[in-house]
Amino acid sequence: MDLADSQSSEGEESKHSSGASDAAIELMKLLITLSAGVLALSGTFILQFRAHPWWPFILLAVSWIALVIAIVSALTSISAIVKSRLHGDDLWSTGKRKRAAQTSKVGFIVGIACFGIFALTILFTRAS
Questions:
Q1: In angstroms, rounded to a whole number, what is the distance separating the alpha carbons of residues 83 and 86?
Q2: pTM of this prediction?
Q3: pLDDT of 94-106, one tens digit each?
Q4: Res. 17 pLDDT band, cuts 50 70 90
Q5: Percent of the chain with pLDDT over 70
Q6: Helix/strand/coil (H, E, C) string of the chain?
Q7: pLDDT band at residue 65, thresholds of 50, 70 and 90?
Q8: 2 phi and psi, to 5 degrees?
Q9: Torsion over CA of 90, 30, 38 and 63, rounded to 10 degrees?
Q10: How far apart (Å, rounded) are the C-alpha atoms in residues 84 and 79?
């Protein structure tokens, strides 16, 4: 393998790595935006549900906690990706940094699921 081949393969690796980190950043930004939107909208309209039973609000609290965890984990993941780019390595996709991205995704899914169940419960229970 000559010098041109090794430079070419390094360039392809950095393009692949850059593409993966770009996609990861976009996903994390999307999760942050959607999580913040659900938090803002549900917080805005919470007073509309005062007449409903108290127990569905446990689901809402779990949803809010999961969405806040998703936001914090996504910000941690974005920070790790940016630091990896500055240092020229791919460490953002390993260890704690990888777990932060996974935690963000799981937190988002749990938060949205709990919020959906909360919304359906409020919709189908009678106000007292």
A1: 5
A2: 0.79
A3: 778 789 889 999 9
A4: low
A5: 82
A6: CCHHHHHHHHHHHHHHHHHHHHHHHHHHHHHHHHHHHHHHHHHHCHHHHCCCCCCHHHHHHHHHHHHHHHHHHHHHHHHHHHHHHHHCCCHHHCHHHHHHHHHHHHHHHHHHHHHHHHHHHHHHCCCC
A7: very high
A8: -95, 180
A9: -30
A10: 9
Return the SS3 of 83.
helix
Cα 116-122-123 angle, rounded to 5 deg: 90
* Rounded CA separation 94/3 (Å): 29
Dihedral (CA of 81, 85, 19, 96) sign: negative
Give which of 44, 28, 43 is closest to 101, Cα–Cα: 28
Q: How many alpha carbons fall within 13 Å on the CB side of residue 59?
A: 16
Residue 85: its pLDDT value, please? Answer: 82
Which pLDDT belongs to residue 44? 93
